[in-house]
Amino acid sequence: MNDNRHGRRLIEHVLERVMFGSRWLLAPFYLGLTFALVILLIKFFQKFWHFASHVTSTSTDEMVLGLLGLLDLTLLANLILIVIFAGYENFVSKIEVAADDIDRPEWMGSVDFSGLKLKLIGSLVAISVIELLKDFMNAANGVDETEVKWRIAIHLTFVVSGLVFAIMDWVSDLTHKSKNK
């Protein structure tokens, strides 16, 4: 009987070790996102160079559209960075090399999965707004109405999703606080 319990504990220990170690399977995903950030940086410089080299010959509207495009890429880069840092720290391991770094962002190490969801949806809403602004700025050039309607619908979906996530987190916090009293 005692050997049977020992065998089960050993199996349980091995299973838990394997499952706990499986978190490292996520590390290549975050490394891949880091490389994607480099690719996005190249695209940013390409757009910036095109924007800067034509600044004297473009209209104000075209300049605003160019700036919105750069802002769009910047927000996407921020989104990727948030996912890399928060995802890695929440699911794989602490980023200890940044522990004592003076430039370490305050939110690093403190964004839980719930906070990550809210940051992601907030970034998606901001990116969506920029895309809508581009469409509205381009309206004089003949924008496809169906496409704009879809973008508005998608944007509203992001906004509603963000509100639902925020309400769910708020209710969850209230529930946890009332249980801890």
Automatic annotation (TrEMBL):
<keyword id="KW-1133">Transmembrane helix</keyword>
<dbReference type="InterPro" id="IPR005134">
    <property type="entry name" value="UPF0114"/>
</dbReference>
<feature type="transmembrane region" description="Helical">
    <location>
        <begin position="65"/>
        <end position="88"/>
    </location>
</feature>
<keyword id="KW-0472">Membrane</keyword>
<keyword id="KW-0812">Transmembrane</keyword>
<protein>
    <submittedName>
        <fullName>Unannotated protein</fullName>
    </submittedName>
</protein>
<dbReference type="GO" id="GO:0005886">
    <property type="term" value="C:plasma membrane"/>
</dbReference>
<keyword id="KW-1003">Cell membrane</keyword>
<dbReference type="InterPro" id="IPR020761">
    <property type="entry name" value="UPF0114_bac"/>
</dbReference>
<dbReference type="Pfam" id="PF03350">
    <property type="entry name" value="UPF0114"/>
</dbReference>
<feature type="transmembrane region" description="Helical">
    <location>
        <begin position="24"/>
        <end position="45"/>
    </location>
</feature>
<feature type="transmembrane region" description="Helical">
    <location>
        <begin position="150"/>
        <end position="171"/>
    </location>
</feature>
<comment type="similarity">
    <text>Belongs to the UPF0114 family.</text>
</comment>
